Amino acid sequence: MSVPETTGRGCESPFDQIRQTRPDGSEFWSARDLQQVMNYTRWSGFKIPLERAMKAAENQGHDVGRNFQGSAKVSGERGPASEDFHLTRFAAYLVAMNGDPNKAQVAEAQAYFAIQTRIAETAPAPFALPQSMSEALRLAADQFDRAELEAAQRRQLAAKVEHDAPMLAKAEAHSASTTSINRQDFAREVQTWGKKIHGIWILQKHVMAFLAHKGVTVRGDRSDAGQATATAIRNGWAENSKYTDETTGRTFVTTRLLPKGQDLAWKWITSHVEANGTLELPRDLRAGDAA
């Protein structure tokens, strides 16, 4: 990736390296450049957090056109132009906050833009030139102390963003759970999340097939298909609960996801949907998955 000229003062952050400036001095980030630094291999996958960021800006009453300026990026001297957006710092911050929380680069982007936005909000007003040597020394000392304090605050904010990002993503998907849940209810949570957050329809059979593919439930046409696997039980992901129908006297087995299994399944699901835009597995992976 060709890196545009930096506008910072030698900062090593990759997000500083891709920051660009217009002739009027305003700064922006190319969405295509940000896609690569945030470790999205496909533009279609990156458009998911990009479009969610646009919707968030619109819902907050911000000018989407100004913050997400449509553009085109040319690959090479004669390459075809591809869709791109010039993002303000605020727009890039929203994109980062809507990115895949399982990507380390996304967590770095969240920390960077949260810190830079905070710095911009708290930047001190320009001060008058000192009139004496003693005043100049005092101002220099104050500026040094302020820089030390801001550096400490940046480190604290970066640690907080890195710590909170996975929890924010989890809260976005479902409420923190301390109890088990049967797989049908879990599938309904996933369906609601898919519609609300991503605007996509997720079928219950897609959730069941995904859990089987990940080894949480038994695959295939076996009599115990759909029940918790031995691995899931051993790892504390799921359990099989037996109950008897009072009317017929028949015994049934219900598969329940334990809190640990729910957390793990949500990480798998959010990562897969962010990367593919759907939870449906490719055809070559669906064979034998339990319904």
Describe, in plain words, how this protein is organized in 3D.
- By secondary structure, this protein is α+β, with helices and mostly antiparallel strands.
- The protein has two domains: 14-122 and 144-173, no CATH class; 181-286, no CATH class.
- Helices cover 53% and strands 13% of the residues.
- The protein has helices at 14-17, 31-37, 43-59, 64-67, 89-97, 104-122, 133-173, 183-198, 204-213, 230-235, 259-276, 283-286, and strands spanning 19-21, 27-30, 68-74, 81-87, 181-182, 238-244, 251-257.
- The protein has a four-stranded antiparallel beta sheet with strand order 1-2-4-3. It has a three-stranded antiparallel beta sheet with strand order 5-7-6.
- A hairpin with a 6-residue loop joins strand 6 and strand 7.
- The longest helix is centred in the middle third of the chain and has 41 residues, at 133-173.
- The chain is elongated, with a radius of gyration of 25 Å.
- The chain starts with 13 loop residues before the first helix and ends in a 5-residue tail after the last helix.
- The model is unreliable at 1-11 (pLDDT under 50).
Task: Please summarize what this structure is.
With 291 residues, this protein is of the alpha+beta class.
Report the sheet-strand fraction: 5-15%
Supply the number of helical segments: 12
Class by alpha and beta content: alpha+beta
Read across the widest sheet, the strand sequence of neighbours is 1-2-4-3
- Which bin fits the share of residues in helices? 40-55%
The major β-sheet equals:
4 strands, antiparallel
Radius of gyration: 25 Å
State the separation between the terminal residues, measured CA to CA: 44 Å
Q: Count structural domains.
A: 2
The best one-word shape is: elongated
Tell me how many strands there are: 7
Please write the string of helix (H) and strand (E) elements. HEEHHHEEHHHEHHHEEHH
- Summed over residues and divided by their number, the pLDDT gives a mean of 79
Low-pLDDT stretches are 1-11
